[in-house]
Amino acid sequence: MRYLPKSPADRIAMLQAIGARSIDDLFAPIPEEYRLQRDLKVPRQMAESEIVDWFRERSRENGDSYATFLGAGAYYHYRPVIIDSLISRGEFLTAYTPYQAEISQGTLQAIFEFQSMICELTGMEVANASMYDGSTAAAEAVMMAVRLTGRRSVVVARSLHLEYREVLATYAHHQNLPLATSPFSDDGRLNLHELEKSISSDTACVLIQSPNFLGTIEDTSAMAEIAHRKGAMLVVSIAEAVSLGIVEPPRQADIIAMEAQSFGVPLDFGGPYCGVIATREQFVRQMPGRLAGQTTDRNGKRGFVLTLATREQHIRREKATSNICTNQALVALMVNIFMTIYGKVGLKELAKQNLAKTAYAAAQFARHAKILFPGAPRFNEFVVRTSEDPAAINSRLLGHKIVGGLPLRKFYPELGNAALWCCTELTTRSAIDTAVGLVAESERSVRGSREEIDAEEVAR
Amino acid sequence: MKHMTRKATRHVSQNEGLIFEKSSPGKAAWKLPPLDVPQVDASALLGSSERRDLGNMPEVSEIEIIRHFTRLSTWNYAIDLGMYPLGSCTMKYNPRVNELVVRLDGLANGHPYQPEAISQGALRIIKTLSDCLVEITGMDAITLQPAAGAHGELTGLLMVRAYHQSKGAPRKKILIPDSAHGTNPATAATVGYAVENLKSNPHGMVDVAALAAQMNEDVAALMLTNPNTLGVFEQEIHKIAEIMHAEGGLLYMDGANMNALVGKVRPGDFGVDVMHLNLHKTFSTPHGGGGPGSGPVAVKQMLEPFLPRPVVLTKPDGTLACDYLRPQSVGRVRAFYGNFGMFVRALAYILANGPDGLRQTTEDAVLNANYIRKGLEGAYDLPYSTPSMHEVVFSDKLQAKKGVKTMDIAKRLIDYGFHPYTTAFPLIVPGALMIEPTESESKEEMDLFIEAMRSIAEEVEENPQTVLEAPHSTRVSRLDETAAARKPVLRWKAGT
Is B38 exposed, middle or buried (0-12, 13-18, 19+ CB in 10 A)? Predict the structure, then answer.
C-alpha cells in the first residue's frame, strides 16, 4: 500500500523490539469472537490513475460544464486561482487546530485577519473563527440569544431559508424553545405589523435573513427597533456574502450569523462551507466557536493564541456554550484570501456586477412573465412566476446545458409556478437571453392553447 | 547524540505583519471582465440599503498576497513536515490525489439543488461511500449529513432520543465514562439529557459492576469511546452491551479511535447500536488547521427510521434519488447534504486502500503505537499497563518531581522538530502525554521521536530549566495566554 512507509523487514524488526511474535499478538485484547476473519467487502485497491478515472466519470455525470441560475444559499462565483495555490500548501492543509501556538502562528494570524475582515464587512465588533455553515451558525446564534436574554421563545422569518429553519427546528425542539413564524408581505419583506404582534415578553430573538430567501433586502433597522423595544434581540442571517459589497450591513443587529461560501468557496454539492457568527463585544463570552486573540510572547513580540477557551467543551464539558469542537479553518482561509484579493474596492465592484446582471435578467423576464415582490430592493436573486410549471421549462433548458431557477413549490406552495433565479458575475447575457427565450416561448404556447380553447368555446 | 536534534535545525523565518499593514489605496489583486449588460445605478436600485463604505478592508496586489500567506504558512508545523502525534486526532498522511479529484469541475461546481438527472455522479459518490462505511462499521444504515464529529454525536443522540420517544419516553440521562472527550457531555446537554459520570476501573476500562449498578430505565444510552482515550480496547464490551440492552438502553460509540479497528473488528458485531465516524481522522481528509471535518453517523436497523432527511436511495431504474418522505426522521442537522467535499476525499482514500490496504493500515497504526510505548518505557511513567491499541498514554509523574509538566515536555519536543502529543488529556491521567503516531510514520521517524523524548527526559534530570523555558527555536517564545483572555484583542483596528 503506497501510503504506508514500512518495509516487511521494518515490521519484523519492530515486532521483535516490542517482543511480539506476530501482529495478531497486538490485537489479542479484542475478544476473538469479534475479530473479523475475512476481507471487508469494499472495492479492491486501485491505482491512482484508476481513482482519477473513476471520479472523472462521476464528474461527467454531475452537470460538468452547465451554466446555472441556481442560488438559494449556495452561490456560483469566480474563485481566483491563488486561493487553491495557497490553501494547498501542506503547512495549511495538513496542520491541525493551533493548540501549540508557537508552531501554529500561520494559522492563528490568518484567523485573526479573518475575524478582523468579517468585523469590517458586517459592522460588528467581534467575529469568531468560523462555524460549520450558515444554517448551524443561525441555530447557534439563536441559542446564544436565549442565553443572553434568559428568554426562551424565538420568532423566525418565513423568508429565512427553509433548510435553515429546519435545522433550527431540530436544535430548538430538544432545548424546548418554542418557535413562531413571521410572514412576509407582497413586497417580499417581512410584515412589520405582524412581526411586532408576534414578539412577546418571552421572545429571546427575532431571526431574519437579508437579503432574504426571496432575494429581497429587508429593512433591518426597522426590525431592530421593533425587537429592541420589546427587549428581544435581532439575529440576522446573511447567506449571500457578496451582497456585503454593496448592501448596507445590519449594523443594528445584535448577532449576525453568516454563510461565507460566496467568498471563494467552491459549491461542492453543498459543503464544506463557512459559517461565521459576529456580534457586539459585550456578548463575546456567550459566543460559541473558536476565537483567536492577539498577545505577546516572553520577549514582548506580537503573537496570536486561541483564547476565551473557558466557553468551550474541552474545559466546560456539559456546561459549555456549545458542543462544537472544530471550526472550518481551511474553508475560512479560502474566505480570508478571497476577501484580501477583492478588498475594499473590488468587493464593491464585484457586488455591482451581480446587481447589474440581475437587474438586466429581471427586466428581461418581466417582459414575458411576472416578477413577484416588486417594490423592495433586491441583490442577485428574484422570483419569476410563469404560467407553466417551472420544472417543465427547466427540463427544456437543460437541453441547452443551462440549469434554470429553483422551483419554489416545495418551499412556498402558495406562490404557485414560481422559481427563484440567481445571477452572479459569472452569468452571461447569452445564458440569460436563452433562458428568457424559453420562458417567452412557454408563455406564448400556454397563451396559444388558452386562445384555442377560448376560440373553441366561442365556436360552440 | 545526546541532546542533539537530528531532525530539526533553525532556518530563516521571515517577519510578516498583518495584511492591513501592507494596504494602500489603489493597489488591487482583482480584475473583473467588462459587463455584457447595461451598467446600473446602485443608489437608484438600492436606495437607503446601499452601502457606501467598506471600512478598513485591505487593498493589496497579488504578489503581496502570495508572499503574505506563504510566509505565514512557514510558521506552521504540519504532517507534511513530520510526525504529528496528537493523541485522539489521528494525524495521518493526507493523500494528494484526494485534492485533485475533489476539484474536478462537475464535483467542485455541482450545485446542491441541481436536478437529480445531472446529480447522479455526486449521489453515486454519497451512495458508494455510505455502503463502504456501513460495511466497515458492521452497522445497517448511515447518514453523512453531520459536519464534524461533535455534530455527529448530536445527530446520534437525537436519534437515540427519537427512538426512546417512539417507545413511550425519551428517558433522562446519558452515561459517560470519566475518560471521555469533552464533546460527549457537551452534546448530551445540548440534546436535553442529564449527564452521569461513569468511573473507570484500575485498568482504565469501564467498571462493569459500576455500570450495572448505575444502569436503569432512566438511562437512554452509554457513550463509549472504543478503544477508549487511553488507547485501550474495552475487553468486556460484550458485557457492557448486554447490560445496556437488558434495560432497553442503547450503546453509542464515539468513533474517534476507529483507526485502531478498521478491517480488524466491526463495532456493529460487538453490540454498538449507533456510532459516529470522523472522516478527518480515520479516512484521511485534511485537518486544514482545524476543520472542515465530517461526522457520519451509522446505526442499526431499529434506528434507521430516525435518520436525518434526506436519505439517498436507488430507484427501480437504477438511478439514485433523495428521499425526503421520512415521517420519523429527527429532521435536518445541516443545510444540503453535509460536507460533500470530504466524502469525495474519504472515498478516494478507501479506493486507494482496498480491503487489504485498510487492514494493513490498522495493523501498522497499532504496531507504531506499541513500538513507541516500548521505546519510552522507563523514561516516562506508564499509568496503565493494559495493552495499547493505536495510541499510548504516559504521564509526567517522573518529570513532575523536577517541576517539569507535560506541557513543558511538549514545548521542548518542538525544538526537536516534532509536533507535541496531546497534553493533559484524558483527565483520568494527571499530567497525561497522549501519543498517537498513526500508520503514516516510518520506523526511522519514530526512532528520531523516541530519541528526542528520551533526550528530553535526560534534560529534565540534568537541566530542567532548558525544558521549562522551551521552545527555544521558534519565532515566538511561549505566549501569554492569560493576558489574551483577560483583555481580549480579537481584531485589528485602524491606528493600532
Answer: exposed
